[in-house]
Amino acid sequence: MTANDRFANDRTPMRTATKQAATGTLIGLALGDALGFPTEFSDVPSILAKCGPWREMALPKPAIVTDDTQMTLALARGIRTAMDRGPLDPLRMTRPVREEFVDWYHSPENNRAPGRTCLVACQKLDSDRPWQDASQIGSKGCGANMRVAPVGLVPRLSEGQRAGAAQLQAALTHGHPTALAASDLTARAVFLLAQGAEPLGLVGRLRSYAYENRSRYHHRWLGDLWTRAHDATPEDFIRRGWDECLAVLERLAAALREPNPEVDPCIATGDGWIAEEALATALHCFLLFPDQPLPALRRAACTRGDSDSIACLAGAFAGAHLGAAAWPKEWAERIEYRSELLTLGALWDA
């Protein structure tokens, strides 16, 4: 990629200390979402017949995103509002994020085939009931973690704040423990990459984090959510989620020992409709091409599974790792919601 292709001012050389990880993450997320939007619900042969070789996939014109990016922006706005009022905590975060999710539910732009869980939960959130009663306790769909990247980008959060916020935003709609754990891990991956962690060791660090948190239920952030399930204790409840995430991370580690970019990543790590598989398959695509963001996005979009969510997360990981300069200028300039993505990115990059 030449200097003219990069999403950066040509007169301002990119430096490691100013890679603009938040901007890179949000733009990459939206680009992956737009690239995968037309290929969702298609198998790989159908995608190849429609789009040509996967390594040459072009960004659609116009570059329209799905509910993945819309809900990411809703979460980001809610967190920004909460932190304008003071340090992030569950009471301060819940109301503005809940309001943003309800606004998204009623928006005329909510016409991008949103998931049923998000629709049902957001309808119930539009009431006076406790949010735990709106949460869909049996759902671990990828809608929980497709939108969580902002939690990994917000500066000056403690590890407990980041974990609690990631799980809370998931639980507002998807109450299954695996949705909570996968969202926590997704935010953790974005945070580590934005801070400069080497991709080579990322899976090992995420597995260690999962083991460390396997029996930790965040009471302050989740309240009595666990009582809606059948588990005997809150620790039993959350352990189910971490164990499913650990199992898929094992599959990911095995796949990366003999990587083959020409094979659909979904075969090894799942189709991505559920939270833990969306995380693992997006990481799979990113880690096949850790320093080549466009092949990572294209591989993620050319999959048999939930291609927009997989590519959305792969773009977030690539952008967190490489920064804003990862993305071709001609792609980044025409992504839908570009202005808001750049505004939020600039806020957290500062």
Radius of gyration: 18 Å
CATH domain topology: ADP-ribosylglycohydrolase fold
- Looking at the overall shape, the CATH architecture is Orthogonal Bundle
Biggest β-sheet description: none
Task: Give unreliable regions as ranges.
Answer: 1-17
The overall pLDDT average reads: 94
Helix content: 55-70%
Helix-strand sequence: HHHHHHHHHHHHHHHHHH
Structural class: mainly alpha
Q: Could you name the CATH homologous superfamily?
A: ADP-ribosylation/Crystallin J1
Rough outline: globular
Q: How many helices in DSSP terms? A: 18
Number of strands: 0
Q: How much of the residues is beta strand, in percent?
A: under 5%
The top-level CATH class is Mainly Alpha
Q: Write down the domain tally.
A: 1
Structure, described:
This protein is an all-alpha fold and 350 residues long. It has one domain (3-349): ADP-ribosylation/Crystallin J1 (ADP-ribosylglycohydrolase fold), CATH 1.10.4080. The chain has 18 helices and no strands. The chain has helices at residues 21-36, 44-51, 67-84, 90-106, 116-125, 131-134, 149-153, 159-171, 177-194, 202-212, 219-222, 234-257, 266-269, 275-288, 293-301, 307-322, 329-332, 338-349. Helix 1 (21-36) packs antiparallel against helix 18 (338-349) and helix 8 crosses helix 9. The longest helix has 24 residues, at 234-257. The protein is globular. Residues 1-17 have low confidence and may be disordered.
Present the secondary structure layout.
Layout: H1 21-36, H2 44-51, H3 67-84, H4 90-106, H5 116-125, H6 131-134, H7 149-153, H8 159-171, H9 177-194, H10 202-212, H11 219-222, H12 234-257, H13 266-269, H14 275-288, H15 293-301, H16 307-322, H17 329-332, H18 338-349
Helix pairs in contact: 1-15, 1-16, 1-18, 3-4, 4-5, 4-8, 8-9, 9-10, 9-12, 9-16, 10-12, 12-14, 14-15, 14-16, 15-16
